[in-house]
Design brief:
Layout: H1 5-59, H2 65-72, E1 77-83, E2 89-94, E3 109-115, E4 118-126, E5 131-137, H3 146-189, H4 203-283, H5 288-317, H6 331-342, E6 351-355, H7 368-385, E7 391-400, E8 403-410, H8 417-420, H9 440-450, E9 454-459, E10 465-472, H10 476-479
Parallel strand pairs: 6-7
Antiparallel strand pairs: 1-2, 1-5, 3-4, 4-5, 7-8, 8-10, 9-10
Helix pairs in contact: 1-3, 3-4, 4-5, 6-7, 7-9
The protein binds adenosine-5'-triphosphate and magnesium ion (MG).
Magnesium ion binds near residues 377 and 380.
Length: about 500
């Protein structure tokens, strides 16, 4: 358990005061005791001298035994004796245990000894022709004397007052500002930014509070800058998304352009035939049978033009960029549509496109329009590279766990080394200006990845390039009762 700042402070101050005041108390108490003892000793000596003076002056006049008896009943005098001029004991009264049997004449003695009931003072006072010796009880210091108790009380009160004062001062100068700062820091951590920092406590703490305020302000401005960056990033992402969208449209238009060039050729031939047949009808009066024959040929040519135009319209109306991201597509169906669209194209002459997609291959999770554009690009690319005559493009598809892999293989020369590493980047092309924009594969990758798939290039079994598109397959649950999903 962690103790709070106040409690720790109180404990530290308590320990400090105990360490400082307990030895002080003992020193003062010992001093007081010592001075009291010496005062008692000198009082006892004075008493001894006074009594001895009285006894000696009485002894010069006669027998003192009664006086001695009377003196021993005085408080504190335990024993008393008179010695003759040679120092031999003459008369004695009281408990003689501590009295010497003889004294040195003319020599004053004052010494502390241990009596049967406690410390005693032996006082020998020499007179003109006699000496007197007394044993006076020195009261043993039982327990602490009142003075010592006062010292204890005094030091205790001072220590307590110091403790309270130091605690209050420390609380005001340190604890309260630190608690306020810590609360403020907690509020910052909790997300508050417009913060009123406490301006209290010692100078250093005020400085700290000022630094914290500056830090919060910096944090605030950094956060604001970050928000600005995020907004910028969002805008850039949005711009990028619309740029990608327009890239897809551009590529689409380029493909339409290429197709249109092929179409012009496709339409030009039947149109020339039609003009010839019309002229024949107008200038020559044909018999009904031949006339009908000409009309049938004219109808066939018109139908040819109509079919070509319809296919082109179908393709150009499919706004791939706007096509929904979800949806399912049948690989076989989409491929059949693409091949039908490409069949009349000039580019496809002398190129055999084989559809080896098994009908049992599951549907893939991508909008049909998107898959159509991907396959169209891949087959057109392959057709551009294969040799003529003898060009061969094979489209295969196989199920692989949760995905379907579509391979577009050709017997061309394979991908040129110069572009192999950046093949799927926009505007990477080996074709001459006007023939290719280099957008086809970039757009393919965008469409495939948006559907959660991948596109890669390798070598085909036919010796040319193999472009493999891996797409997630539609699970049975997704497929039940759903056509292509429209995302609004
Ligand atoms: N099947 C292939 N065999 C060999 N090289 C290929 C094949 N497919 C693509 N490439 C190479 O990749 C390049 C880029 O193809 P991409 O489809 O991105 O652009 P492009 O075909 O040049 O122009 P466009 O924008 O008209 O499609 C091509 O120029 C070509 O060099
Ligand atoms: Mg291309």
């Amino acid at each position: 358990m962690r103790l709070g700042l106040r409690l720790q402070l109180l404990l530290a101050l308590g320990v400090l005061l105990v360490v400082a005041f307990v030895p002080l108390y003992f020193a003062v108490a010992r001093l007081a005791e010592a001075s009291l003892a010496s005062a008692k000793k000198s009082a006892a000596r004075d008493l001894g001298r006074a009594v001895a003076g009285h006894v000696l002056s009485s002894a010069a006049r006669g027998d003192v035994s009664t006086l001695l008896e009377a003196q021993t009943s005085e408080s504190g005098v335990l024993a008393i004796a008179v010695y003759d001029g040679a120092g031999a004991q003459v008369t004695v009264a009281g408990a003689a245990a501590n009295l010497p049997a003889a004294v040195t004449p003319g020599k004053e003695v004052s010494q502390v000894a241990e009596g049967p009931t406690g410390p005693v003072l032996l006082v020998v006072v020499p007179g003109a022709d006699r000496s007197c010796a007394l044993v006076i009880a020195l009261e043993a210091s039982t327990g602490r004397m009142p003075l010592v108790r006062i010292v204890a009380l005094y030091t205790g009160v001072i220590a307590l007052a110091l403790l309270v004062f130091a605690y209050l001062a420390m609380t005001r100068l340190v604890v309260r500002p630190i608690v306020a700062l810590s609360n403020a820091a907690e509020r910052v951590a909790g997300g508050t930014r417009s913060l009123e920092m406490p301006d209290i406590g010692a100078a250093e703490l005020r400085e700290l509070s000022g630094s914290l305020r500056q830090m919060t302000e910096r944090l605030l401005s950094d956060e604001e800058a970050l928000r600005g960056k995020v907004r910028e990033l969002e805008k850039t992402t949005h711009d990028l998304a619309s740029a990608q969208e327009s890239l897809v449209r551009t590529e689409r238009l380029a493909s339409v352009g290429r197709l249109a060039a092929g179409m012009a050729h496709e339409i030009g031939n039947p149109l020339a035939a039609l003009i010839g047949l019309e002229e024949l009808l107008m200038t020559v009066d044909l018999p009904p049978d031949e006339r009908k024959d000409v009309l049938i040929r004219m109808k066939r040519e018109t139908e040819r033009i109509h079919r070509v135009l319809r296919d082109l319209l179908t393709f150009s109306r499919t706004k791939t960029a706007d096509a929904p991201e979800g949806g399912n597509a049948s690989v076989a169906t989409v491929l059949a549509e693409v091949l039908a669209l490409l069949a009349p194209q000039k580019e496809m002459r002398e190129v055999t496109v084989t559809n080896e997609v098994d009908a049992g291959v599951p549907d893939v999770a991508i909008a049909a329009e998107r898959l159509q554009q991907v396959l169209l690009n891949l087959v057109l690319n392959a057709a551009d590279e294969v040799p003529r005559p003898g060009g061969a493009v094979v489209v295969r598809a196989e199920k692989d766990d949760d995905t379907v892999v579509i391979h577009v293989d050709d017997n061309g020369p394979g991908v040129a080394v110069s572009v192999r590493d950046k093949l799927f980047e926009p505007f990477v092309t080996t074709k001459e200006v006007g023939k290719g924009t280099g957008l086809g594969l970039a757009v393919c990758r965008g469409l495939v990845e948006a559907a959660g798939g991948t596109i890669a290039v390798a070598e085909s079994p036919e010796g040319g390039a193999r472009f493999s598109v891996r797409l997630p397959r539609v699970t049975e649950r997704q497929a039940v009762g759903t056509g292509p999903k429209r995302v609004s």
